[in-house]
Amino acid sequence: MYDKLTRKDIELMEAELEDRRLNIRPKIIEEVKRTREYGDLSENYEYKAAKQAQRRNDSRMRYLQNMIKTAQIIDDAPQGETDGVKMYDKVTLYLPEDDETMVIQVVSTVRVAPDAGFISMEAPLGKAVLGKKVGQTVMVHVNDSISYEVQIQAIEEAADDGTAPLLEY
Description:
Blueprint: E1 4-5, H1 7-36, H2 45-70, E2 72-73, E3 90-95, E4 100-107, E5 118-120, H3 124-129, E6 137-141, E7 147-156
Parallel strand pairs: 1-2, 4-5
Antiparallel strand pairs: 3-4, 3-7, 6-7
Helix pairs in contact: 1-2
């Protein structure tokens, strides 16, 4: 399955990949060489830690390369009517069941951070509010047996300001 990513997502991934390739990887390789000289590798924790860091970095680089290569580029620019929820808009929601208000920002699948209010457009809540307007009440279907209502109280047009972090994995 191809992830739907914005051009900004791709730019951030390419920047991270370049940083890992040009800065982080050479430092890790140097650390592996340095710790290898400590002697018996079977009891050399520093060497094992350096090799683990190398594997983790290489794995992240492969992940980023694969995501960039297989991405389905989506347009994050406003489409259609301007008063409906779009990507990166900040949306104030009222949850009547809990009598609580929350603010979310709908983002792509690789920029999710629910605790910070960044909700994926593929998540049940993201899918439910995209395209909806202020005042509308929508049903969020988590699964076949769990659903809840949210009311859209406000929509603040926003752009991708880069504050939504890339997922680690």
